[in-house]
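Q: Predict the assembly, please.
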Amino acid sequence: DAGITQSPRHKVTETGTPVTLRCHQTENHRYMYWYRQDPGHGLRLIHYSYGVKDTDKGEVSDGYSVSRSKTEDFLLTLESATSSQTSVYFCAIRRTGAQGGPYEQYFGPGTRLTVT
Amino acid sequence: AQSVTQPDIHITVSEGASLELRCNYSYGATPYLFWYVQSPGQGLQLLLKYFSGDTLVQGIKGFEAEFKRSQSSFNLRKPSVHWSDAAEYFCAVGALLAGTASKLTFGTGTRLQVTL
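A: Predicted assembly structure:
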């Protein structure tokens, strides 16, 4: 258990509305990630953070923004939700110093987002 | 760029039978490789990892995987499958981003069904 929670766990929203998903961790990890999971695509990286106020884009960042104002929280915002953003969103942390080197990640329980 | 291929979308095995899930990767340097398992409605759980040393690695729940550099493969195996192993399995390779940041690149997953 990496002490990661995500909220909400489920959300249904309408096209064009803003949506914010929250990832909260309790272990003070520096690196945090947002992925989306879609059938036939596995997990794809949206954005990541390497410290407070330090974020960067992943491979599918269009339509998403993130913020990290404190170590424990990493927020993902859909400024104007579209149906193509219907997905399951996972937050992850990277444990530095772990045996998996600079890559070992642990995942939260996910948020299922439906955009109608 | 790195990539991961899981050629089998869906596999069905009988309880008690052996299992092998295939994973092929593409990465220019020595790879860090992972297998994750996802039960329905759950997040991803790390099964095992490889980054150096013995090419046969043991994981949780009785799983093992063998790294074969010549074949660019990291196949997951279990000698005797239990009904509770029914889940989706993801292979991933670690890759560096800018600075000290890193990410995981995932395959598209293999869904395992276990018949009684």
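Chain A touches chain B at residues 31, 33, 40-45, 48, 50, 56, 58, 90, 94, 99-110 (CB under 8 Å). The domain at 4-115 of chain A is CATH 2.60.40.10 (Immunoglobulin-like).
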